[in-house]
Specification:
253 residues, five-stranded mixed sheet, alpha/beta, uracil DNA N-glycosylase activity, 10% strand, 9 helices, Uracil-DNA_glycosylase-like, globular
């Protein structure tokens, strides 16, 4: 498996981008890239491959989503970039001091993340946003290896939606982490802490997914997302405040 041989986050990202383990997902992502471009993107060359995680290799916070969007990350090659869900997420990450800018349009737009990395249990765009259990299982080693490589620094996982919550808990269990019983249920603002035999702990914080289904209906509002991100910063031992105040706090002068 490509994931097992990755000795760094950079190597893992390369392994993800070259993965062809799921025939249905490979066929769909390439079909979208070559034949099903929306009219507004017809002049763009789609990424059309599995989408690696985004963010530094010393992140304290790991955001776990679901899977790339067909005309978002599958087009741009960057997690949550180029679609309405990403518009909501990156604006909130900027307000919380994790992102250098409030928008994420394409891979060369200058965006950087600080103290936070974004990943997903499934790295290819699935038809109808619905990966199969086998596809999730095929992709699970990437999430497992990512957690292992981030082990020295990661302390909080912000999980967007119930699919990511279940997938992350399953992967943590497979890695030998102790998960509370009964298994914690997903909910917006729900928290649970899992422990590793070596003494490490990881706190999971749930948030409704930033999908249009949630943001357009008001199920998830910017204020609700801001509240969860403030909680995440506190749990990760990071300062809380406005982007300007956080920038001043990081300035050594």
């Amino acid at each position: 498996m490509l994931a097992a041989g990755a000795t760094s986050i950079a190597a893992l990202d390369v392994a993800v981008a070259t993965c062809r383990a799921c025939p249905r997902l490979v066929a769909w992502r390439e079909h979208v890239a070559l034949e099903a471009r929306r009219a507004s993107f017809r002049h763009e060359t789609y990424w059309g491959r599995a989408v690696p995680g985004l963010g530094p290799d010393d992140a304290r916070v790991l955001v776990v989503g679901l899977a790339p969007a067909a005309h978002g990350a599958n087009r741009t090659g960057r997690m949550f970039t180029g679609d309405r869900s990403g518009d909501v997420l990156f604006a909130a990450l900027h307000r919380a001091g994790f992102a250098s800018q409030p928008t994420s349009v394409h891979a060369g737009d200058g965006l950087t993340l600080t103290d936070l990395r974004i990943t997903a249990p499934v790295h290819c765009a699935p038809p109808d946003n619905a990966p199969t259990p086998q596809e999730r299982a095929n992709c699970s080693p990437y999430l497992a290896r990512e957690l292992e490589l981030l082990a020295p620094t990661v302390r909080v996982a912000m999980v967007l939606g119930g699919f990511g919550w279940v997938a992350l808990l399953r992967t943590l269990t497979e890695l030998g982490w102790t998960v509370p019983r009964p298994r914690p249920k997903f909910g917006h603002g729900a928290t649970t802490t899992v422990t590793h035999p070596d003494g490490r702990s990881l706190t999971l914080v749930g948030s409704y997914h930033v999908s249009q289904q949630n943001t357009f209906t008001g199920r998830l509002t910017p204020a609700m997302l801001d509240e969860v991100l403030t909680q995440v910063r506190r749990l990760a031992g990071l300062p809380v405040g406005s982007p300007a105040a956080l920038a001043d706090a990081d300035d050594p002068r």
